[in-house]
Specification:
elongated; mainly alpha
Length: 235
C-alpha cells in the first residue's frame, strides 16, 4: 500500500503533525511580529521625531532597514549552514524578543534616539539573521518528498494569516496597551517562537533523505534489490 500523501499524511502521522505545527506555528508567530511591527514603524518613529515630515519618517524607516535588516539577511545566507538552520531561528527569536523587551521595559526608551535606534535596529537585524529566512527554508527541508510541497504550502499559508492578524491587530493594541505594552506582547510572541522552534530537528549538514527519514527506506530497498539480484546458492 502506498504511503499517504497530501493533508492525510499529516493527519495519520504524529511525527509529521508535530513538524507541521513547528514550521507553520513559527512562521505564524514571526509574520505576526514582523509585519505588525513594520506597519507600525512610522508611528514608532513619530514618538522620536514628532514634528518630522512624512518624507523624513519614510527616510528613517528606509535607513533602519538598509543598515540593520539587509546585512542580517546577507549574513544569514552566507552563514546559515555553518551556524545551523534551527539554531539560527532559535537565536533570532530570542534576540528579537530581547530587543522588544528592552524597548518596552526601559523607562524613557522611546524618547532616547540613539539607544532606541540601536535596539530597534538590532530587532530587525536578528529578524533577518534568523526566522525571516529560516521559516521559509525549514519547511522545504524537513518533510518527506511526497508531502514537501504540501507541508511548505500549509506553513506559508499559516504564516500569511499571522501577517494579516499582526497588521490588523497592532494599531488596535497600540491604542489599548500603548507602544510599550504592544512591544512587550511582541517580545512574548518571539519567546513563543523560540520555544516552538525546539520541536524541530536540525537539518544543517544532512541530506534531505536523511532529514525526512527516507534514507532508511532507500537503504532497505537497495538491500532488497541487491539480495534479489544475487544468484541463489548451488544446491
Amino acid at each position: 500500500m502506498p504511503a499517504p500523501s497530501g493533508l492525510r499524511a499529516f493527519l495519520t502521522s504524529r511525527r509529521l503533525l508535530v513538524l507541521l505545527a513547528g514550521t507553520a506555528g513559527c512562521w505564524f508567530l514571526l509574520d505576526y511580529a514582523y509585519y505588525g511591527n513594520t506597519i507600525s514603524t512610522p508611528q514608532i518613529i513619530a514618538l522620536l521625531t514628532p514634528h518630522a515630515s512624512q518624507t523624513t519618517t519614510i527616510a528613517i524607516q528606509l535607513a533602519i532597514f538598509a543598515v540593520a535588516a539587509v546585512p542580517g539577511y546577507v549574513l544569514a545566507i552566507a552563514r546559515m549552514d555553518r551556524f545551523g538552520h534551527r539554531r539560527l531561528q532559535l537565536a533570532g527569536f530570542i534576540m528579537m524578543g530581547a530587543c522588544f523587551a528592552v524597548i518596552g521595559l526601559v523607562p524613557g526608551m522611546t524618547t532616547m534616539v540613539v539607544p532606541f535606534l540601536l535596539a530597534y535596529g538590532l530587532s530587525y537585524f536578528f529578524t533577518e539573521f534568523g526566522p525571516n529566512v529560516t521559516t521559509f527554508v525549514l519547511p522545504g527541508e524537513l518533510f518527506p518528498t511526497r508531502i514537501r510541497a504540501t507541508g511548505h504550502g500549509i506553513s506559508a499559508g499559516v504564516g500569511k494569516l499571522g501577517a494579516f492578524i499582526g497588521v490588523f491587530l497592532f494599531p488596535v493594541l497600540q491604542q489599548s496597551l500603548g507602544l510599550r505594552g504592544t512591544l512587550l506582547l511582541t517580545a512574548g510572541i518571539s519567546a513563543l517562537g523560540a520555544l516552538l522552534t525546539l520541536v524541530l530537528p536540525e537539518p544543517a549538514g544532512r541530506s534531505l533523505e536523511e532529514i525526512s527519514g527516507e534514507a532508511d527506506v532507500i537503504a532497505a530497498a537497495e538491500l532488497v534489490i541487491r539480495d534479489a539480484a544475487e544468484p541463489a546458492p548451488a544446491g
